[in-house]
Amino acid sequence: MLIIDIPGYETIKVKNVVFDFNGTLAVDGILVDGVKEKMEELSNRGINIFILTADTFGTVSDQCRHLPVEIEIFSKENVSGSKKRFVEKIGPETTITVGNGRNDLAMFEESILSIVVIGKEGCCTKSIRVADIMVNNPIDALELLLKNDRICATLRT
User: Fold this and answer.
1) pTM tops 0.70
2) Are 105 and 78 in contact (CB under 8 A)?
């Protein structure tokens, strides 16, 4: 479990991190360089890692086959609702979500903390407005989780 004590805000106890795949961790279905190593490091800290996707390019299983993650592939209809229900099931009060698209919006609203990734694909401006933190790329998002004093510096009052 990861405990993040944000001065003037709250203490967050994190058991799970949920990632979108395409546009967040991957570009055109291929993991961004450095993501594998950071995911392994995060997993070594006792965090459950989930990847939720409609798998637009059909590559998520191959790209993540050696990673310590659980993958959920949803049909392309109502991906947003499926992601939200998944976060509800695993416990939104102990889950951080990371994504970039419109279909990540509902899981952002549900989770204790959300991070939107701009990346090469860009990101949905509605998701930016709901997210707690915005970063440039997936490595930045993963490093926030690995060096959570950065989260405190960003969110403290």
Assistant:
1) yes
2) no
